[in-house]
Amino acid sequence: MSFLTRLNRSLRGFALGMVAVVIGACGGAATTGGGGGPVGGNDACSGGCGTALLTITDAPGDFLSYTIDVTSLQLKKANGATVQTLPVTSRIDFAQLVDLDEVLSAGQIPAGNYVSATLNVDYSNASIVVDDGTGTGVTVAPVNASGTALGQVALNVELDNRNHLVITPGRVARLAFDLNLAASNTVDLAGLKVTVSPFIVASVVPPDTRETRVRGKLASVDVAGSSYTVDLRPFHERASSLGQVVVHTTTSTTFEINGTVSTGAAGLTALAGLADKPMTIAFGTLATADHSFTARRVLAGSSIEDAQRDHLSGNVLSRTGNTLTVGGVRLDRRDGRFGFERGTATVTIGPDTKVTREGQGAGAFSIADISVGQRINVMGVASSSGAGSMTLDATAGRVRLAYTRVFGTVKTRATGALTVALQSIDGREPAQFNFAGTGASVAQDADPANYEIGTGTLDTTGLGTGAYARLFGFVSAFGTAPPDFRAETLVDFTSVHSVLGLSWGLMGSTSPFPAISATGITVDLASGSLRGAIELGGRLIDVHTLGTGLALVPATQGTLMFAIAHRAAGRVENFSAFGDFTTRLSSSLTGSTAVMKVVAKGQFDAVTGAFSATQLLVVLSD
């Protein structure tokens, strides 16, 4: 069972109302609120045009699938003129955007100062599956606060007056959206519904540096310039182009083109030599200064989609011979349909199954490398005779080993090795996996209580016993453990964000903070109505168990955002200076105004009880 489900139970219905919060990079405050849709028409480019690079992501939630339609996205100037930047409906599974930015649009728009945006979404044909801890998931229906089925919803974002989206001719400006599923939804598993109050963040200075995905049809290749250009087609778009993006490459950029791997210039040369213009997907980073995109790895052609094959992704739950049981299945069918598949799938592989590995530039892999826990992308022929009975024949197809993330608490550390108490693999609990056959002998099969990880040259010196760690890499080949997993990157949870959620029930509390100052806010943990928890790398800590107390303090680095939401008035005040925020909060708490909820992202120090927030939202009753 994942974080949001457990947090919701802890908070007994914790959720945010519909608010649009903008992260500012300067001091001061701005007010946002509800309102109608955009007005006015598109400006002509009489004053020149620039590129608006729009990206979208999602904060972690507990959804196996959260697929809705994004119908339009408009940007609005101060004079009311609007520009449509997403002219086609995009069907998006936001559950796939955790830890990943997708470039949604890169179109040319008129130069100017854009002060707001409206993202229109449609829940009429939504497909929402909640992780109930079994791995199968529960399908829920989206409703509003009144219990009525949701249809179209407009998410309005008013940009901070000091941080508008400024478009100038010949330059690229970025606006990043984050549909926070964890804050926007209250799940009722018994009633098979989810109450939705969308919470969206938009920022010209994104608070996180995440991997970015660029999907598009190849337009041209510049081998000498170490780059290629795509007509942007985000997510599953097949026809319409939403602008062009130049993809820069380096000597270490890996390519997989039509199932063949290469690196650097050899990959670009192979891309340039294709007679057709295939679809491409690049994973990489956006530069902070000029928003240029550099790819770490590139997929192209039939390595992405194949008119003769279906494409399945998921984690191997068990393996018997050449038969794999796969969970968390998402299926992209050759006819264009796609979606999350409840239950498990049976995948058959064989000697003729071609195996590659994500990020592979050389070397060879085989079906022997496919083991329990490994995340895989499979191309083959799918068939189904009902729910939970899907099969995919990949005996003449392909399997790509994808980066897999494991999370656990450190038990022992040695040079080049960690032993952890395994908490999850790609968010799935260890009990969902059958590790039989993973070891060189039965006695050496992977043990979740003592999961052995090869860390190579990774720096693990900061990881003491009991520390939380998330590692990205690949499961060891079947029948070869230990180690059970070979890590390529490491996240030490002593230095990354945690999530805090507090709720004082339907009535709220007029005195939840004994002390408010420019340096911190003290939370009264003895309040009888308080429900709350801190999510720390997958572990949920009830705030009532904190012997050190709980203080909310500003982080000392990074992009900061602090906000006060006035529920009755339907407006949100945004701050980037903690002193401005606490001054306003103090003046708002007059004795009759109640604090309903607090949501924060930041770093929690269990020794001092200080939660250093990079993002903090307080919801008031007024």
In words, what does this structure look like?
The structure is a single chain. With 622 residues, the protein is mostly beta strands. The protein has five domains: 3-205, no CATH class; 212-303, OB fold (Dihydrolipoamide Acetyltransferase, E2P), CATH 2.40.50.320; 310-402, OB fold (Dihydrolipoamide Acetyltransferase, E2P) (Beta Barrel), CATH 2.40.50; 404-492, Copper binding periplasmic protein CusF (OB fold (Dihydrolipoamide Acetyltransferase, E2P)); 498-620, no CATH class. It is built from four helices and 45 strands. Strands 2, 36, 37, 38, 39, 40, 41, 42, 43, 44 and 45 form an eleven-stranded mixed β-sheet that branches. Strands 4, 5, 6, 9, 10, 11, 12, 14 and 15 form a nine-stranded mixed β-sheet that branches. A hairpin with a 2-residue loop joins β24 (310-320) and β25. It is globular.
Q: How many structural domains? A: 5
How many DSSP E strands? 45
- How would you sum up the major sheet? 11 strands, mixed
Q: Averaging pLDDT over every residue, what do you get?
A: 84
Number of helices: 4
Can you give the helix content as a percent range?
Answer: under 10%
> Structural class, from helix and strand content?
mainly beta
Spatial separation of the terminal alpha carbons:
35 Å
Measured on Cα atoms, how large is the radius of gyration? 24 Å
Enumerate the spans where pLDDT stays under 50 for 5 or more consecutive residues. Answer: 1-5, 9-43
The shape is globular
Instruction: Tell me the fraction of residues in β-strands, as a range.
Output: over 45%
